[in-house]
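Box S2. Input/output pair 1.
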Amino acid sequence: MPMQIVFATARRLSSFSRTSRVTAPSLIAILAATALVPTTLDGAMAQSVAEEDMSAPQSGLDLPKNVTFFGKGDPNLHKATAIINGQIITQTDVEQRFALIKVANGGEIPEAEQERLRVQVLRNLIDETLQIQEAAANDIIIDKAEIAESFARVASNFRQTPEQFTAFLRTKGSSPASIHRQIEGELAWSRLLRRKVQPFVNVSEDEVKAVIERLNASKGADEVRVGEIYLSATPENREQIAANAQNIIDQIRQGGSFAAYARQFSEASTAAVGGDLGWVRPAQLPDELAKAATEMSVGQIGGPIPVAGGFSILALMDKRKVLTADPRDAVLSLKQLSIAFPAGTTKEQATGRVTAFANALAKNQGCGAAADTGKALGADVVDNDNVRIRDLPPQLQEMLIKLQIGQATPPFGSVENGVRALVLCGRDDAPDAGAPSFDQIMSQIEDERVNKRARIYLRDLRRDAVIDYN
């Protein structure tokens, strides 16, 4: 017998709860972003009351304190086929989307993780189906030509034609249909939310002016660019969601793409843009996230962080000062001196030459003498102009910020790949950053307000859905 879950028998949506939108999705990273939404699917199972007078009122469900289950049932174990309001999701749909997750993770997913990910893929496909169905109910149909055009753009980002990209997907156990489905879901949902929400969200001029005044008053304060993966949780599944969050963190730390996981794991509307919250001051974040962001280093992943309604995973992408020029945006002119070692050279054998290299650099008299210094050392000398400090490895950024014109960095590298040094020939400092424009701030406030309603909209669609698991 199929197990039928009826999330609700009637819709109780006000115009407020039905007005939400997300920012328009970026399709550039769509292949790497075919992951999952980590939530559980609760099965309906019989239960008996061991102590009838003992209930759990904190859940609001008037449940007994001690629950006895009749028979064995795991709500995370289904045959992969589901029927959502009459529309079928097949085992093939799940496996092809799962194959894209493997591509995003370099083909390496621990065996213990795979079944959990398949369950989450199924949930993601259910959400996509609900979004497409709701859009269709509002006379929004995404033209196949538009989907094909978007697919071609995705293929071009992999430097392939659509035909080549199709063949590539099939070699990985997936298909273009899986990406077509995600494109359709994102476009349909975004278009639906823009139609039903944007006209009803208003931001006054006074609100925008107040933000500009606060920005000017906080000039020089710290500002961070963060990415977030938000996972909703209830008291009943809180432990499981926390474990899911930790699994995501482990996968990202092992080389997984944060943006890829955020696009489909995250239940925040910023999932469409890889979880990127943009530049914010810590004070603009919830207290728990603000504390974590100020303590993290650039490039670090933090979490799972308990927040209202669930957990968040943070990625600190960058830091800067509000309305202040960032020294890492300075553009440099450099000379690079590099020496190579014959194959088989040991670290001990190379030490003498590296020491001589370092001593010569210490005595080097600016860029004008760099060519002669390089010739004396048998080093290659290459000019590098228009190099932005921000684009260099983090270890070099701090050093070059403090370097004076004509000075050189200490030698760096390895025996295998060669040892090199950089001589600073010129620096063009970045101008002071201006405040965002009036329109930019207004758009940001609108997005924040509307995005808060996006989750409500999808939550209500889930509650109204009739879903059969076979």
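Box S3. Input/output pair 2.
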Amino acid sequence: MRRRLLSRAAVAVTSLSLLGAVAPAASAHGGHHDTARRVGYFTQWGVYGRDFQVQDLERSGAAARLTHINYAFGNIGTDGKCLMGNVPGESDPWADYQRPLDAENSVDGVADTDTQALAGNFNQLRELKAAHPGLKVMISLGGWSWSTNFSDSVRTPAARKALVASCVDLYLKGNLPQDGARGGAGAAAGVFDGVDIDWEWPGSEGDTDTVYRPEDKRNFTALVAEFRRQLDAYGRTRHKHYELSAFVPTAPAKIDAGFEVRKIMKDFDFVNLQGYDFHVSGEKTTAQQSALYARNDFSVDGTVDAWLHRGAPARKLVVGMPFYGQGWTGVSGGGDGLGQPATAPAPAKWANGYADYKELKALADSGTYRLHRDQRGGHAWLFDGTTLWTYDDPQVLTQKSRYVRAEGLGGAMFWSLDGDTPDGELVRTVDRALGH
């Protein structure tokens, strides 16, 4: 059995002294891991309201500290193939490869032209990789909103083969739909280094319109195997290894409903563990959303244990870390606010109940909120007597990163990069704590 912390000691802000208890060390699960992954999700839609461009990863220094960028998201159409086209709400080719960037917002400092085949985020990612040759970019397929058609698309060997072939053709070979000067055969070749499967969730409930079936479990295994076969086959023609990963759940019931762990882990390079949204602002009681340890509740440590117990190698488990918080308002009951009834999700800039770390940092610095910390449990929250936000700050992320090292795990994943501060405070914190 791995260690458990059996009591919660919620206290106000204190020093970093307790973090020394989770120092880098050898682990029974795989030893000291000096090549830990740093995986950050870049959101396609972040270039709009948040005005978070690929170039911001260079400006903040985050790009130099990441090993992987997961581009969120690619979609699967009703025809069972990877979708790219002008389908409102289902695809955004304008953001992906059509939108021109000016010199100020371009990684290489040169404005896009009207005649180049590749523009938008894909071209900026290509420029970012040129500046950082070791950086890998993965296309993440699905996500919460775009997992709708996974189950329907993988029910037969022929369907799985066609789906995977379409994704390889679109993203790895870079054969984009032609739209004027943009797109065409090979336009995005070399941008992506692999595929990240974000099916939420095979065999169990996800978004309201997402289909799921009991047979999803075996079909997911077969889908993973088909991706591995086709990625390897294409890789042999390019003398390159294309990576395969997935975003996977924390709840044991969801793991058991959708994942044949020992089988799939043979084909994955790594998986990104859900390390957040353990509780969300739509619930009627405030709670932690991303605790490292928790008694009789979801936690990062419990998620790691669940996957290890089912046969996943520690070195392939990458721990998800949130760059945002979950919030409630109308909190009553006094005390520090945690575990108390609330009336509604807290007001926020982009979506009620959801705030980027940079927004929460400003609240913490305002003096209006008090910062509370569960040192043993490894989580933090802000409370002003009425509104509560639970989130990960640099102290919590340092503790979690040292846990990753001590347990010989595969690294850290961040959702999402646009939630960080302009100077990349959170990425820098995790990179430093993971070591080199």
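Caption for Box S3: The first strand starts at residue 10 and ends at 12. Residues 216-238 form the longest helix (23 residues).
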